Amino acid sequence: MTKTATIMIDDQTYQVPDGINLVDAAKLHGITIPVFCYHPKMESVGMCRMCLVELGSISVNRDTGEPDLNDDGSPVVRWFPKLQTACTQTVRDGTVVRTSTAQVLEARDNILEFILTSHPLDCPICDKGGECPLQNLTMAYGPGRSNFIYDDKLHLDKHVPLGELIYLDRERCIQCARCTRFCDELVGDDVLAFHERGRSLQIVTISDPPFDTKFSGNTTDICPVGALTTADFRFGARPWELDEVPTICPHCPVGCNLSASTRIDRDFGGKKMIKRIMPRQNELVNEIWTCDKGRFGHHHSRAADRLQHPMMRQGGEWVKIDWATAYHQIASKLKKYADSAGFLAGPTLSNEDLWELRQLAELTGDTPRLGVWPAAMTGAGVVAQVGIGVNTRLQDVGPETAILVIASDLEEEAPIWWLQIKQAADRGAAVVVANARETKLDRVTHTVVHYDYGDAVAVLNSFAARARSRRKTSKALLDNRVDGYDDLAAGLKGTRVPFADAADVLLDAENVIVFAGAEGLTLDQHRELMQAAANLLIITGHVGRQNNGLVPVWPGANVQGALDIGFSPETTASLIDEPPAMWFIGGADPAADDSQAAHVLANAEFVVVGAQFMTATAAQADIILPRQSFAEREGTYTNGMRRVQRFYAAQGPVGDALPDWTIYAQIGARLKGPKPPVSAAAVMRAITQHVPRYAGMGYSSLAHVEAQFPDVGGDDLYYGGTAYANHGGLGVQWATDAEDDSARLVVRPAQIEKPEKSGDLCIVPVRLLYDRGPLFEPSDIMHQRVPEPYLELNSQDAAHLSIADGDRVMVTAGEIQIETAARVNGHAPEGVVLWPRRLAHGPAPALFSACSVQKIEE
Amino acid sequence: MLAEKHADRINKIFAKYPDKRSGVMDLLYLAQEEYGWLTEDALREVADLVDIDPTQAHSIAGFYTMFSEKPKGKYWLQVCTDLPCALRGADTFYRELCAYLGVEDGGTTDDGLFTVEQVMCLAACDRAPMMQCNFHFHEHLTIEAAKELIEKLRVQAQPETQEDGGA
């Protein structure tokens, strides 16, 4: 338990956690100290003066340690002679504060009058109107009239683009510096700053591209006035018209809790429509942040080219069919092909969809082939053993914890985790970044390991060997609960430790968290990487506890769910090696990602594809099933930290599209399966009965909400934003074996198989946040942030080929040939060509395939 | 480019500080000396040299009155008109100076020689009216003395030579 302090607010005594901010302490007990510049997620600066209070402390006799008493027995309070800013005070025993005396009220009145001297008061046309702290506080504490002359107001530019995503209204800005401090302190992208001073002070950016950060949208949420608005929402709707629907981001494994602000809108045929996406507070997941992809990447749900009806290919033409025909046709094909059908689930299928897909598959044979796409990462069993401890809060992680990020460009793959790790580093957590190339996370730490592509497993093995040689192993765990340690120990004997300093950073920490990606790893190598990470965590005892364990950086929002429900990437690999006659694909686009998969699909006898768009895979189908997007249906996703989270139907339907689970259950019913379930909740009930890790969950427990601290989403007047409040649930995180004292943990030697690199130059596909994937490309607003297709070359290789940064090049890798731009900026290791996935349409070549690069002469 | 032309001075600047970014002010002065004023390209060049975002260089240049982000004349006349100086007649002096040069507050003469500007305290209140001409102090001024100085500078500027530019 944290220490508590006894403080007095407005003559009442309260117990609060010792050392917290005075504004927060008051808010804990429902007492308002209004603020503009203070924000509980940032350091206080005391700039706006709105939080002025009378502050004192109880006088204590130095000899006795007892409080001095007045004649009437009350304690003597030593008051500061002038008002103090509450936001710059932390509470301790004996803090006394008065928040509503005449002096304080007058000060607030004066500050507001001052702040409003040049505020345009254009609330009727301001997007923030209705959820604006300045508006709220002026109504509550402000003067009814001003001593200043209205005509003296300074008139400034009202539509200043800070890049194409965020607009600045210079008149409305009250210079609280929340936005600049967010960029500077929290994100470390110091691309916003103040320019000039005094009355001319204004926010500027001249970064390239302007406001160059992946988190820019968050500044509009924390702006206490309508100075910063998003291009996506400005002039789109009034906050009081909006209905907030809890949802979960479908883009990455972080699983940010979001609010979809919806209203019935003529732009969407009079149906409910998402007008904006806002972060929804969940302190265990995304706190109050989300990245720009999550915030602005919702347009796919309403894209004009969404598939609207089931379609069947007849003589080379697509023919619209009704659902009954589609169900009947597919059922008869599944009956015909039976166990020579293969099933493939994409990363945005919900747990309910996955469960019903499995039920359908099991009607075709006893051991159906259930694959997951992308099949880039594996390790379900390892995660079940040593996944990160339940109730880990990355925002609490500090000097006692070390975080290892390996084989992942985290800012591109899971931006909010990147942000949280960056902040953990600021608080003193030891961060070790191990990659084959430079990534942005390298900036936050001095402990950077750059290995050769193919050596990731060896690096982890060497850390484990170092743990043994330094006797940093956990005897209690190894003696009582671990199987296979002797083999592992034998395997580690004599292992070279090239990065001993990095190993020691991890071994000397009280807690260790490992984030593992799969960049530059084949599926087989990735299995070994996950095992090597598990070995390290188990033998050092960093499992089964809060702030310890493994986090896989899955290539999608619900890959964890797919693994939990029985889909596997190994099966996917076997489906491609030994293709089935019939494919049943839901929400995956293998033909766009992988040329071998595209080839196999083209040769299949019958292909059924559930899709939102006419993807490369859908184009190969015999029957297309239009699936609903995350916006118009409910379901659950399981994030990379195994938290099962609910999302709700936010938007009106598109065409005849249906949720995947309904489609699968209906087909199943025509294969003598059970009657289709009536709701997603009923499907979840079946999951909880059959998937042991999900036992005890259910739509009501997933919707459970607890008060969040800091409380920025309540009914207060001063943090603003109507969307933060979490009414949709905090989700439930399933516990790993490591958390069950009776469960055995298994280690085994992780094999190092360095893949054959063919040729002088070989390809390593990498993931980018802003790509041309089917769920992101329809968001036109983000187009300027998606780079033109490029490849990254090492400067030596480039010099050898007479290629300069920006040159056009022709790249040939096997059958794949594209013309693209070359980047030469020192990030690619020698002999490697980095190929960002999904920037160019068309599949990326396989990992380490040989390629040739030729400059195209102008 | 600064990096090529002033490599030695830049290295000397970096040698003074534990990290590169601390050298930003010195380099902004260098850039201003080189280009006459801080163009956006100059800000980007300096930002690149000290490895900070150009926005931060822009912010620093905007905060300090001794950096100029606008084109200015060959001679930059900054007159302190804060209260103590004004009490000694600096505000009248400033008005007369503007009138003599035929420019508005903050303006530049048509021949591009002089830019006038009011600034905050230059720490010479007891010697007001005073002004700073390209960072050199001229104190105990009268408008006659200022006119004399201006004419002297006009003559000095006559045989325009390359080396003479800037400070």
Characterise this structure.
The complex is a heterodimer of chains A (858) and B (167). By secondary structure, chain A is α/β, with parallel strands linked by helices. Chain A has five domains: 4-100, Ubiquitin-like (UB roll) (Roll); 110-230, Alpha-Beta Plaits, CATH 3.30.70.20; 311-376 and 559-644 and 652-677, Rossmann fold (3-Layer(aba) Sandwich); 380-552, Dimethylsulfoxide Reductase, domain 2 (3-Layer(aba) Sandwich); 761-855, Barwin-like endoglucanases (Beta Barrel), CATH 2.40.40.20. In chain A, 25% of the residues lie in helices and 20% in strands. Chain A contains 24 helices and 37 strands. In chain A, the strands form nine sheets. Chain A has a seven-stranded mixed beta sheet with strand order 16-15-27-26-25-17-18. In chain A, strands 1, 2, 3, 4, 5 and 6 form a six-stranded mixed beta sheet that branches. In chain A, a hairpin with a 3-residue loop joins strand 7 and strand 8. In chain A, helix 7 crosses helix 21, helix 8 (351-362) packs parallel to helix 21 (660-669) and helix 12 (456-469) runs parallel beside helix 16 (523-539). Chain A starts with a strand and ends with a strand. Chain B has 167 residues and is of the alpha+beta class. Chain B has two domains: 2-63, Orthogonal Bundle (Arc Repressor Mutant, subunit A); 75-157, Glutaredoxin. Helices cover 47% and strands 11% of the residues of chain B. Chain B contains eight helices and four strands; from the N terminus they run H-H-H-H-H-E-H-H-E-E-E-H. Chain B has helices spanning 2-5, 7-15, 24-35, 40-50, 54-63, 83-87, 90-101, 143-157, and strands at residues 75-80, 114-119, 131-133, 136-138. Chain B has a four-stranded mixed beta sheet with strand order 2-1-3-4, with helices on one face. In chain B, helix 3 runs antiparallel to helix 4. Chain B is elongated. Mean pLDDT of chain B is 91; it is low at 162-167. Chain A binds chain B through residues 189-197, 204-208, 212, and chain B through 40, 43-44, 52-56, 58-59, 62-63.
